[in-house]
Amino acid sequence: MNERRNFLKSTGTVIVGAATLPLSFSIQPAIASLDRVIKVGLIGCGGRGTGAAAQALKADPDAVLTCMADIFPDYLEESYNNLMMVNPNQVKVEKVHQFIGFDAYKKVLDSDVDVVILTTPPAFRPLHFAEAVAAGKHVFCEKPVAVDAPGVRVVLESAKKAKEKGLSVVSGFTYRYDFPKRALFEKIRQGEIGEVRSILTVRNGGGLWYKDRKPNWTEMEYQLRNWYYYDWLSGDYIVEMMVHSLDLMSWALGGQLPVRVTGTGGRQARTDAKWGNIYDHFAIEYEYPNGVKGVHFSRQQQGSSNTNRAEIVGREGDAIIDIGRQTHAISGRNSWSYDGEKNNPYETQHEELFAAIRAGKPINEGDLMANSTMLAIIGRMAAYSGQTISWEDAMKSNISLGPKMEDYDWNLVWPVPPVAVPGVTKVL
């Protein structure tokens, strides 16, 4: 019951009774019309998927959820029940359209949905995104979009195909849809702090959830239910969660890519075997052209102090974002503090996705979401290995962390590498 209350709180609901179109793209009348239903399919029915679906339905009264897919029947059932509590009039998922299994996503893509919400563990994202684009579906793609460089390359290629097809692709980089942050970064873009010289992002927090092992679970089921703690499924926590902070770094530099990355990390508090093989702290330095530096610090250690902020230093001023204090301000020659309209960015991203679809003016955030994800992946690679790694070498890597989709099976035992040791572990 606590999980249900937390879900309802996180969606902000209560229970009551970009780019231009390619010339070759033709808009389907049912989608271009402003007063017609948009059919939505949900692939991945965990907490984030359920929240994303609720936010999508709240964003557009003519959006209807018609298909759901997950590998776990209990996740799908709980998700369906929670969504029915939020708005039953927009949840029209018959039993025959509640799909279970590793191939369940295919059945959603084979249906007549217009938009798919991709919210499975990150390891599945590149393939699901590629097949969604191939099926001609508009996509809301939760971050991160991959766990390794081969996956990022798949996403980049799929994003290119989505542009050719005139499909909208919106990512789960929610900060991009927050009005105060948009205003601040527009000030930076306009030169209000002068040339950006350095960016610091810090996100320190405590521990997270864990699912106790059940006697009837195979090793595969156990790891999939605790996917966060295995780098082959989550990419490590720097990829799964801290990617938001690294996206702020990319935003501040207008999407510029680093030349090379150095870092370290490890696990000091989260040391029990039940925490899989991920780290609990990272410290990463990103070197950009013209001597610009980006630095990221983070930890997930229970009982430690919390902060989530970004500090951007320019030649003529500094910008600060403090998530906890809701501070968005500039100090220096052009001092400024945001005092405008507040919004729910989780809903805004869906509002803008649906508006783009209805207007026939696609949004495509494919390159953005791939590059920001790669910032986190290369940070992990540098920390795991203890080596300075160039962006070029990282992007060329052919090391895939997990199995191929066709190899997934409940009895598959995927070999989990030991916790990485800087100076010993090889990543290239």
UniProtKB/TrEMBL annotation:
PROSITE patterns: TAT (PS51318). Residues 184-318 form the GFO/IDH/MocA-like oxidoreductase domain. GO terms for molecular function: nucleotide binding. Residues 38-165 form the Gfo/Idh/MocA-like oxidoreductase N-terminal domain. This is Putative dehydrogenase. It comes from Cecembia calidifontis. The lineage of its organism: Bacteria, Pseudomonadati, Bacteroidota, Cytophagia, Cytophagales.
